[in-house]
Amino acid sequence: MAPPWQMQKGTVREWVDDRTSLSSGTFEGESLFSEGDAIVGAGPIGSAAARHILERTSADALAQVYVIDGTQAGTRGSHHDLARLIRAADAEGDAKWSVRNAASLAAFAEIERESGCNFFHKSGALVVGPRTFVERAAKAAQTAGCELELLDDVRERFAFLTPATGCDAALYDDSAGWLEPNAMIEAQLEYARRRHSDRIHVVPAAVQSIEVLDSTGGGSGGVFVELSTGAMLVVDKCLVTAGAHTRALADGMVEGKLDGVSVSRRTVALLEISESTAHELEKVMPTLKYRFEEGGGASVSGNEQSKTEATSVYLLPPVRYDNLGGRYFIKIGGGPNDLMPENVSSEEIAEWLASGGDAEMASKLADIGRNLLGGVTFANEGHETMACVTTVGSDDMRIVSSPCKRVTAVSCCLGKAAGPADAIGAEIAKHVVGISDRCIEVERKFAPPSDLQTMRESVSRLGGGLDSEKVTRFVDEYYDVPSLALVASDCWLRTRKVVEGAASSSWELKLPVDVESRSGGEREVFREVVGLEHVASELAQILHEPSLSADAWKGVLERIESENSSTTLASIAKFATERFTFTLDDCSIDVDSADFGHAVMEVEKLVASPDEIPGAKDEIARIASSIGATPLPPQNGGKLLVYLRKYRQDVIDVLVRSGILKE
């Protein structure tokens, strides 16, 4: 049978029914889906996310990934060019971007080796400008573990450069360079094919619409993705990594979480050089980020990204453009943002990309480039132009999701995501699938920080940060059968309803990994099962009630969601929490304040197997030490146990009688 993207809508149901017979899933009513994810956008981020999602779901042979590539349907994005730069140092001094850049640079050799596709050119990189500008970038690179070389006068090392007075300090990174984005995309996809050939599919089509299916009334939910071919792809989850087109496709499903994100018109100038000059410059010219005004950006409104862009340009070493007659050009971009309306359509974006850009801005960029490259002989006094787009709106990219993470959208990449796309893809995969739907969580409780701002500064210095999308307020409610059989088995069933924030509401079940780890639901190591269907299946195995199959338990949980009532399960604890989540390396740091007067900080790490637990504990200890955290004993620190001691002595008694809690 043909794959779904080659079918008309009428035959998609037949395809889904055929797949259902091959899987263990149950598909009911009209809510039918294949077991897998669709990724809308086969750019640098989408291709990297596909590979990392496949790695994180490698244990599930039925979990497919469909990468929807709109290129053949005429959809274009800002990555459709021949060169993008990458360096460890972030020009805005942002530690998070420096960490991403360094991680991606470190991964390039493996990706090229395992895919057989070369895409990276190690030319080195310079950040040039006023001393304060350069030192800020150097500090960001240091947080990523990169000690780069500071130059007082860039002209002493690179004689062909003639920067403006006061703008001649530099930071040099000899491990950096530039990449061919389309070649990198192919490398990511080929690497994924070689490791997961039966689970990755590249779909040549544009996306017309995305619709989340209702999961109430016994359905399983899912996502319909309508393709330009007239076919409908039916999947479990959908990831939208469509660059400037993301908001137009996904805004309605992520509930305003992309508000404030705008598409910025960008223009690129191309300065032509002869082939012989190009070959000479290839030996000595690094990529450049050049701030051409001392104290520049002070009069520009907006965040640091906007201020830096307004008074700086980037330049790439010579690149041969076959579409321009095989001639060689030095590419220059930058300048102030030129924002489109927030509700801009994909058609308007496409029209801009086809326009060739802003002629006046291109002339300004060309003049700045010629003034900086005073020692370079150009082929003529003219220049070529190209149009580009970026997404802006905050200091960091946004990875946001609809409830249950059915649809996840990635946007606000600030025009600097192509280079570190591999690290971004890993972040996205972690957000979308975690370790798995049945992962092991290792955590430790600590005294809460006395000052969140000091905490933020400490984490930032180490290369982490507070994710604004992870400031959440939620209500946890714990359930058990009347006999408290789950509590007696040290199993903890809860529903988390998110009141405010980007996280999704969900059912969760925490289970002991081994007897020694028991501590009344506040253990340091436990197995976590997430999602209504997975939790229902686990409950059927744990409680062994003949009348309650996995489907029956699913119905029980759904009735609690819709009616807030059940005769099978009873509430044993309920409290609200305000949470600030910091991220540092692969650990999450949650600072919680509960509504019954208890506060605690948790440092946690997810792992896939028991073999990884010792390493995770060491990592948590290292993170805690680096931020000066004070450990709390497991039996006294966690919110749930404190709540139960305060309000539910009957549950505490069961824990003691079962040998789970020692009084």
UniProtKB/TrEMBL annotation:
Protein's GO biological process: thiamine diphosphate metabolic process
Residue ranges constituting the FAD dependent oxidoreductase domain according to the UniProt record: 38-429
InterPro entries to which the protein is assigned, alphabetical: CYTH-like_dom_sf, CYTH_domain, FAD-dep_OxRdtase, FAD/NAD-bd_sf, THTPA
Pfam families per UniProt: CYTH (PF01928), DAO (PF01266)
GO MF terms, alphabetically ordered: magnesium ion binding; thiamine triphosphate phosphatase activity
Domain CYTH, residue spans: 440-627
The name this protein goes by in its record: FAD dependent oxidoreductase domain-containing protein
